[in-house]
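Encode chain A's predicted structure.
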Amino acid sequence: MTHMEYQFILVEPAFQKHIALIRLNRPKELNALNLQLMLELKQALANLDQNEEVRCIIITGNEQAFAAGADIKQMESKNSIDLLKIDQFETWDQIRKTKKPIIAAVSGFALGGGCELAMTCDMIIASESAKFGQPEIKIGIMPGAGGTQRLTRAVGKAMAMEMVLTGKFIGAEEAKNRGLINKVVPDELYLDEAVKLAKEIAQMSPVAIQLAKESVLKAFESGLQEGLYFERKNFYLTFASEDQKEGMNAFVEKRKPNFKGN
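Encoded structure for chain A:
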């Protein structure tokens, strides 16, 4: 599948220098995440992860909605065995496995699967109008793509319980105060701010960025000692790269480094 064949996403591998953009593109459905969209997103991320020109990826929607949830019409008639066979959450694993940093640029609704998608990204920039929530409880189900796990790790047990058990939404400012997102900006600037952050990251060594991202994620999946051991091994690995030599030489020579990802 090439970027020309995508139906529900728009992909710009060279949106900015070293920055790729994926735009969810089901505006009439508020970018509801159906199976085809998620399959396309999985493929796009896999392709961009292999593209050596890309150092950072931005996922966004539109001003009205990042993604207002899963496509309920596609799910309502399914039973447990149907869902087991479809294995729709396997697609989400590609997001987690993507080696390059992913920034979610969120405006409007990020609800249910949309909130889970944003949380699966590495950083979140939100507009002032952004709303985050896990309202699945209101239709007799619960989050299934990480909502009970990542939300709890981000905002703590009490707030996660309140959001998951009542389906309440929180605004961008509260989301920032709770530690769910990185930054809140005016509606017209949310994508620009995400690009600004992506540019900062893209200037760094791609090798070091990949290893550092892996190490931060490991903190959520292991105990302290295991995490420290993992971090130490990745630290040692950076010294096998040409970027490490370039970075340290540039520091000594008081100049800006030119990282090439080697």
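The beta strands are 9-16, 19-24, 56-60, 65-67, 102-106, 109-111, 123-127, 131-133, 169-171, 183-185.
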